[in-house]
């Protein structure tokens, strides 16, 4: 079973300084490992061909994993990229994510403060990108609030709103797994990690489908806000149809690959 990449994003908002888009999964943000595949950056470069020919220089400010959907902020020129980067470095921007997790948390809200580092810094690991909670790691904090509890095929799940207070790699995914409620469909943190290795070697298949339930992690960048040009700006992106169908107990369908870009909602 193959999964086609959907190259279909929408512009949520834009000015002469930046553009905010709603990225679907499993679209990758920018080229990786010299692999020829569609990317969000490539799509934006095609969308803004005229602007680039007249001096624009696109720069990704907020990156999302391939399998995470939602808001991505992109600077249109170097000065904007520098200023936006400083805003995030000073932790003045606010992010909110929605995640579908396994099980029902025993609290309505909680904070995870476990420090995070690469698994290879603590011991042997055959997955270089994997992160773990460890006292050897860097400071890391995420606040979680349960939005909804539901059942699907007699199993319990919850929709959790996530507020990352720091910006470590895979932070939300690691902290939810550490709390005992991994994100549905997370190949790296939803199990032992063998699922990730199998996917890398053989691609998506029926066995992984039965075990992980979704072909991508159920994580969505839903809100982003920051101060710009003397005012507070807030952007929102609704959760994708695949995740909403999972919540609603419907069969989750996967669209065919699409190549399209829109300047408007």
TrEMBL record:
Signal peptide annotation: none
Family of this protein: Belongs to the pseudouridine synthase RluA family.
Molecular function terms, GO-annotated: isomerase activity
Keyword Isomerase carried by entry: yes
Gene3D superfamilies: Pseudouridine synthase
This protein's name: RluA family pseudouridine synthase
Keywords linked to the UniProt accession: Isomerase
Isomerase in keyword set: yes
SUPFAM superfamilies noted in UniProt: Pseudouridine synthase (SSF55120)
E.C. numbers: 5.4.99.-
Residue stretches making up the Pseudouridine synthase RsuA/RluA-like domain: 17-178
PROSITE patterns: PSI_RLU (PS01129)
Entry superkingdom: Bacteria
InterPro entries: PsdUridine_synth_cat_dom_sf, PsdUridine_synth_RluA-like_CS, PsdUridine_synth_RsuA/RluA, RluA_PseudoU_synthase
